[in-house]
User: Which sequence fits this backbone?
């Protein structure tokens, strides 16, 4: 009897606590909407010169998943929720189907983020002519770099904002887009693609199978970046044994994006103690830093510093008014941003071509015509003739991009889909999801390179097909990446009849990557 009484008392206490917690949650949710409306008032007063329509609906009413206190909508990605962090691109697509062309969700501490899916809204954001466009940086990387002022003066080209960003970008990266670099790049790429082919020939098994084909493609990208940015060869495609420095750089650049993703979307315990992901991020940063600080210091001390290196390195080394620490970190950012991105895009491109038999035939026809012998040296003039393969690249980046969206922080208030969106809001232009909608591209889910050929201009929306971003903040490596995709793919397809063991699966690791290991058969074509 006494036991039952005790049990009853406990039950009442539990019920009272639960009611209290539920009340707190409800009252939080009620105030949350108003808090969202107030959150950016200060910014708006400061920057407000925007185009808010008089009848715009309040920010708080933008549809989206239910936030909970502190964790916002992060619960959607936990064991309770329907989404997975390694499928964030699919989660963002699902939100579009559930809530419509504008969606607001809340990240940790209920920080609001607005996803835009409508092509006109996306155009409005990306067309806004900003002197210093703001793209949010990688928080954990910023945190780490700020903790090492001995090494880093700024947080690097990718993370820095405002005047400081403009200073680095204009002083250090303009050579990347020069025509002279284009010729130099094509020459290096032809040599490196031959080395890749030789390595594959040497290492495939009796059935012509290469396991973990992605490693070969990433090694190739690393070698390309090293040759073009530093004017040096690394040996990442050496047969049999690879130099330890190449292996370390491969490890670091491969893992950097993955841990950036984990530290960005997981709970930020790393701010308080070094978590496993944070320690790995620091390890990757240290490896890349050690290699590049040695190279830069060696080059700066060399008498030939300005004569023999690559034009990109020359520009970086001789830039006036830039601290040596900024020169090192900018090189690091260029290398880190240039390997997996281009490697993934090349893998998806090959897969998209080979999975569509009619397109594969057209690509082979063009290659056999432009490069009659597999050993033909590729020149910039020959590249201009590969029009169909170029169209395949654009289409592949539309359907299977490496960066599925472009993020910006609004510098003034806007009205999107009838909702007021204040200055200071983080908006994510969901270009990939929008590109897969029938209203924007006919047969949007089919791989149709023809839509990008000159004869068919009707389907082009300049602000949807932006795989390298837009405006002053767009990717400085675009030219290198496009040339690399073109030449490596052309050379591989000219030499081999390639087939993938199974369809590539897209996984989100900050970038969209194909899930490895990728097993591929590469048989000689002749
Ligand atoms: C297929 C390959 C690549 C893709 C799809 C890609 C895509 C992008 C995108 C979408 C951005 C953000 C642009 C924006 O916010 O408007 C970006 C930025 C950047 N990319 Fe690339 N990229 C690729 C290759 C490269 C290469 C080869 C390099 C280096 C040589 C590079 C270096 C960078 C850097 C340093 C930034 C930051 C620029 C800044 O904030 O000023 N990327 N890239």
Assistant:
């Amino acid at each position: 009897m006494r036991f039952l009484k005790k049990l009853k008392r406990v039950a009442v206490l539990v019920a009272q606590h639960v009611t209290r917690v539920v009340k707190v949650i409800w009252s939080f949710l009620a105030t949350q909407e108003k808090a969202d409306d107030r959150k950016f008032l200060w910014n708006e007063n400061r920057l407000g010169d925007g185009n808010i329509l008089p009848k715009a609906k309040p920010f708080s009413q933008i549809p989206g998943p239910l936030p909970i206190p502190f964790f916002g909508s992060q619960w959607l990605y936990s064991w309770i929720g329907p989404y997975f962090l390694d499928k964030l691109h699919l989660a963002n697509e699902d939100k579009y189907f559930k809530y419509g062309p504008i969606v607001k969700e809340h990240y940790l501490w209920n920080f609001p983020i607005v996803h835009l899916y409508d092509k006109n809204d996306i155009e409005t954001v990306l067309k806004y002519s900003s002197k210093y466009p703001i793209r949010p940086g990688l928080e954990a990387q910023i945190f780490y770099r700020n903790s090492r002022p001995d090494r880093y003066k700024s947080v690097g080209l990718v993370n820095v904002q405002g005047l400081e960003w403009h200073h680095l970008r204009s002083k250090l990266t303009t050579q990347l887009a020069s025509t002279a670099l284009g010729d130099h790049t094509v020459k290096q790429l032809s040599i490196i693609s031959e080395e890749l082919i030789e390595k594959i020939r040497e290492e495939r098994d009796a059935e012509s199978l290469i396991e973990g084909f992605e490693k070969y493609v990433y090694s190739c990208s690393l070698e390309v970046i090293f040759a073009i940015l530093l004017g040096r060869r690394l040996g990442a495609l050496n047969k049999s044994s690879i130099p330890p420095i190449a292996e370390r750089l491969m490890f670091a650049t491969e893992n950097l994006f993955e841990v950036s993703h984990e530290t960005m979307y997981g709970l930020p315990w790393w701010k308080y103690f070094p978590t496993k992901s944070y320690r790995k991020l620091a390890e990757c940063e240290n490896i890349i830093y050690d290699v590049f600080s040695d190279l830069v210091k060696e080059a700066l001390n060399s008498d030939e510093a300005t004569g023999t290196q690559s034009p990109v390195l020359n520009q970086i080394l001789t830039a006036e008014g830039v601290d040596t620490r900024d020169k090192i970190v900018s090189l690091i950012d260029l290398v880190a941003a240039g390997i997996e991105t281009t490697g993934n895009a090349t893998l998806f491109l090959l897969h998209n071509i080979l999975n569509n038999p009619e397109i594969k035939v057209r690509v082979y026809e063009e290659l056999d015509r432009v490069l009659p012998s597999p050993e033909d040296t590729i020149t910039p003039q020959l590249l201009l003739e590969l029009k169909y393969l170029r169209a395949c690249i654009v289409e592949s980046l539309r359907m299977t991009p490496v960066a599925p969206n472009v993020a910006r922080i609004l510098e003034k208030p806007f009205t999107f889909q009838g909702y007021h969106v204040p200055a200071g809001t983080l908006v994510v232009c969901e270009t990939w999801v929008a590109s897969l909608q029938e209203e924007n591209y006919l047969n949007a889910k089919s791989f149709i390179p023809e839509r990008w050929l000159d004869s068919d201009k009707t389907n082009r929306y300049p602000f949807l097909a932006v795989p390298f971003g837009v405006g002053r903040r767009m990717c400085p490596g675009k030219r290198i990446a496009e040339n690399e995709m073109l030449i490596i793919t052309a050379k591989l397809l000219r030499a081999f009849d390639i087939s993938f063991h199974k369809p590539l699966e897209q996984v989100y690791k900050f970038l969209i990557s194909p899930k490895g290991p990728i097993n591929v058969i590469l048989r000689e074509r002749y």
